[in-house]
Write a structure and sequence with these properties.
The structure is a single chain. This protein is of the alpha/beta class. The chain has 11 helices and 11 strands. Helix content is 41%, strand content 18%. A 7-stranded mixed sheet has the order 3-2-1-4-9-6-10, with helices on both faces. Helix 1 links the parallel strand 1 and strand 2. The longest helix is centred in the last third of the chain and has 21 residues.
């Protein structure tokens, strides 16, 4: 099949980290190639996959917009950084290898960042899909403006996820990319650091689809616990909270979330109770939250 002619200008670099993603990668890449905005490149980083991911990715390299690089398995943060090191665009998008974009995703977000010159990041609501790509109707939206306070307090969704964002290249450079020591909380960590730089802007319509399946990383609760505690300690070391009172409130909220994860999904009620106690000790009003929760 003859490939279409493409512009040589690259305004957006789309980075797709992929590890054993052969079941979904084709749909993901094709959703990028179908974008109404044309000035992009696609960089697939095969993170040492043991399945057919590399061969599948390479099959798309017939399209001059697509390149594929294989690295030793190093984790999603290292893979994203490896893609960014090769990126040419003024804007950068990070798309997980099991998620999908709708056709006008890049168009709307590029326009947002051109219009809002002070914003560092653009995003949009995300709809969940099943493993077989069926749309669920469940939508996660976010917030715009100076959102650091909302991110740190973790009481509502501010950014639905990495596949929903478009970021200015210089912003990624200023925060030194993703922390390679993190996996499940790498997104939260970079959102904190980007929010310290400036405003986020949001388009009002769903522009991407988040796939639900058993291998989603947030299901790994022990790693989630370690990563998120590390992220909050990093934020505290940068004085991101602004006050001791707010820091205690945020750490208590983190502990309550971890308690709920261990209680509901981790099957470890003693560990859940430990985090409930930590929440009350660091911020005593947390006791009323727990009382309302268990008093239902």
């Amino acid at each position: 099949m003859q490939q279409p002619e493409h512009t040589t200008r690259v305004e957006v670099s789309v980075i797709i980290p992929a590890y054993n993603a052969s079941a979904f990668l084709a749909e993901t890449i094709e959703s990028v190639l179908a974008q109404s905005f044309a000035e992009f490149e696609v960089i697939v980083i095969d993170d040492g996959s043991t399945d057919d991911t590399l061969r599948l990715a390479q099959s798309y390299c017939r399209d001059t917009r697509v390149q594929c690089v294989s690295i030793k398995n190093s984790g999603v943060s290292a893979a994203r950084n490896a893609g960014f090191a090769r990126a040419k665009g003024s804007f950068v998008a990070f798309l997980d290898a099991d998620d999908v974009w709708l056709p006008d995703n890049l168009l709307h977000k590029v326009n947002l960042l051109h219009t809002n010159t002070q914003a560092v990041l653009a995003h949009a609501p995300v709809e969940n899909i099943e493993a077989d790509s069926r749309r669920t109707g469940v939508i996660n939206a976010g917030k715009s403006g100076r959102v650091l306070h909302e991110l740190l307090s973790w009481k509502s969704t501010v950014v639905p996820g990495p596949s929903s964002i478009l970021v200015r290249r210089e912003a990624i450079e200023k925060v030194n990319g993703f922390d390679v020591q993190l996996s499940t909380a790498a997104d939260q960590d970079i959102f904190f650091r980007l929010a310290e730089l400036g405003e986020f802007v949001m388009h009002h319509e769903v522009l991407s689809l988040y796939r639900l399946h058993p291998n989603n990383m947030h299901r790994h609760i022990a790693r989630m616990e370690s990563d998120h505690i590390q992220v909050y300690r990093k934020a505290a070391s940068r004085n991101a909270f602004g006050s001791e009172k707010f820091k205690r409130q945020c750490f208590a909220q983190l502990y309550l979330i971890l308690a709920g994860s261990w209680w509901k999904n981790g099957g470890n009620k003693p560990r859940a109770l430990r985090f409930m106690l930590k929440a009350v000790l660091v911020w005593p009003p947390s006791f009323m939250v727990l009382l309302r929760k268990f008093g239902r």
